[in-house]
Write a structure and sequence with these properties.
- The protein is of the alpha/beta class.
- It has 2 domains: 190 residues, Aspartate Aminotransferase, domain 1 (Alpha-Beta Complex), CATH 3.90.1150.170; 261 residues, Type I PLP-dependent aspartate aminotransferase-like (Major domain) (Aspartate Aminotransferase, domain 2, 3-Layer(aba) Sandwich), CATH 3.40.640.
- The strands form 2 sheets. A 7-stranded mixed β-sheet has the order 1-7-6-5-4-2-3, with helices on both faces. A 4-stranded antiparallel β-sheet has the order 8-9-11-10.
- Strand 10 and strand 11 form a beta hairpin.
- The longest helix is centred in the C-terminal third of the chain and has 24 residues.
- It is globular.
Length: 482
């Protein structure tokens, strides 16, 4: 019998693991303390080429003397999402407890695609999905859902079900008979993952028909109605209408109720991309602003955006749970034994893109249980209130413009004093200067031909003072140019 390698056995020693774990948590706690104190740059100054030199493809044959030294460099080189002046993309500073649950899930390595590989994970996922379904306004006993790895995968999953539902033949076995006869209607502000989904579905990007948005970047129901009638007149089948509950660019919430009316009238699948603002259903105060979401056929919500969870964890919920089994009609007989898929709901690989899937429900279920639902409602309300307060601050300040009054915690704005010759170039320049110096991390976007600075207020420790300081910094850059 071969003897086990000493290296392989000692690396799994519980006491060594305990010591290593304590040291890692100490490093992360120190990092959190520095971030909370607003110390250091939000984003380190390294260019991609410099980062590659800092992380060369050089690996020793033997073990490192101190493996935690690598983590120290990671903490120096990473984008510091826990810094209150991180106000960039829609990825949250994760709740420490949720991160620890994510760590525990990674250590246990139980998946949730096949029940036997993660019994607890499967049960947690379904219970969390049913709770969210009830908050949306669905019947938890009829609806069903699961987590997948990101909003793009979530939108694709829902649209796969819509394609299967909307074609009068078995598209999985026969393929699409005539791609040009099928289309998807979505706002011209819709996230690019919808167009990408159409391309993956084999429909082509042109199958996504853009619907004009109003002055506040929300889909216009009158334009949607025209598009639905035009599709019918030309013999095209509309597989789905996609509405946004919190668009990526501005956070705009489409008028869900009127859109639902039109989908019901024309017998079209209604999908709500609630990746960003769908979590508003957790708050009794904010939920009425999503009126009509309860009429959707499918909804996605990113827990790694407005639920303080580590990325990625996207909930896909179907109003009628049986429709979720239409996403994929394939059967892997060695796993599912040819059973009716609805009777084996616990084998989630029948309904998801992933055949191996992390226990994504663990951090969501465990955090809801640990902190209570009111905690998350207060967090979302605080971030949305701060977004609206910042919008008012911008609007009241000389020479500042809002792209639109913010509906939540995404704010698009620009500084346009008369001394600037090219306002669009200035927004890009000042953003680059601020990000390079590391005082804030923010992004920019182009809306109807104009460049705007854009912030997502997502860190619970960000204050209005932090945001006002950003305006002062931008103004100082403009003064330096004159």
């Amino acid at each position: 019998m071969p003897s086990p390698s000493p290296d392989l056995t000692t690396t799994f020693d519980p006491d060594a693991f305990r010591d290593l774990g304590h040291r890692v948590v100490e490093q992360l706690a120190d990092h959190l303390a520095r971030a909370n104190a607003r110390q250091g740059p939000v984003l380190p100054p390294w260019t991609p080429e410099e980062s590659l030199r800092r992380w060369p493809a050089v690996f020793a044959a033997g073990p490192a003397e101190d493996p935690t030294a690598l983590l120290a460099q990671v903490l120096e080189d990473c984008n510091h999402l826990h810094h209150p002046r991180y106000i960039g993309h829609q990825v949250t500073s994760p709740l420490p407890w949720s991160a620890l649950l994510d760590f525990a899930g990674a250590f246990l390595n139980n998946g949730s695609a096949v029940y036997e590989m993660g019994p607890h994970a499967t049960a947690m996922e379904r219970s969390a999905a049913r709770w969210f379904a009830g908050r949306i306004g669905f019947d938890p006993q009829v609806s069903d859902g699961f987590f997948t790895h990101g909003g793009s995968a979530g939108n694709l999953t829902a649209l796969l079900a819509a394609r299967q539902s909307g074609t009068p033949y078995d598209v999985w076995e026969e393929g699409i008979h005539d791609p040009r006869s099928l289309c998807i209607l979505a706002s011209d502000q819709t996230h690019y993952s919808v167009r990408r989904s159409a391309q993956v579905l084999g429909l082509g990007g042109r199958s996504v028909v853009p619907i004009a948005a109003d002055g506040r970047f929300r889909m216009r129901p009158d334009e949607l109605e025209k598009a639905l009638r035009a599709a019918k007149a030309s013999g095209r089948t509309v597989l789905a209408v996609v509405a946004s509950a919190g668009s990526t660019a501005t956070g705009a919430i489409d008028p869900l109720d009127p859109i639902a009316d039109l989908c019901a009238e024309h017998g079209v699948w209604f999908h709500v991309d609630g990746a960003h603002s769908g979590a508003m259903v957790v708050s009794d105060k904010l939920k009425p602003r999503l009126k009509g979401i309860e009429r959707a056929d499918s909804v996605i919500i990113d827990a790694h955006k407005m639920m303080l969870m580590p990325a990625l964890a996207t909930l896909v919920i179907f109003k009628e749970g049986r429709r979720s089994f239409e996403t994929f009609s394939q059967q892997a007989s060695y796993l599912f034994a040819g059973q009716d898929p609805s009777s084996t709901w616990y084998d989630l690989a029948q309904r998801t893109l992933e055949c191996t899937k992390r226990a994504l429900g663990l951090q969501v279920y465990g955090s809801l249980q640990a902190y209570g639902t009111d905690y998350f409602a207060r967090y979302i309300e605080q971030m949305f209130d701060l977004g609206q307060a910042f919008g008012k601050l911008v609007a009241a300040r000389p020479h500042w413009e809002l792209a639109t009054e913010p509906e939540g915690n995404i704010v698009c704005f620009r500084y346009v004093p008369p001394t600037l010759a090219d306002a669009d170039t200035f927004q890009a320049r000042v953003r680059a200067a601020i990000v390079t110096e590391g005082s804030y991390y923010l992004v920019k976007t182009v809306l109807r031909g104009r460049t705007y600075l854009r912030v997502t207020i997502i860190n619970p420790r960000t204050t209005l003072g932090d945001l006002e300081g950003l305006l002062v910094r931008v103004e100082a850059e403009a003064t330096a140019l004159t």
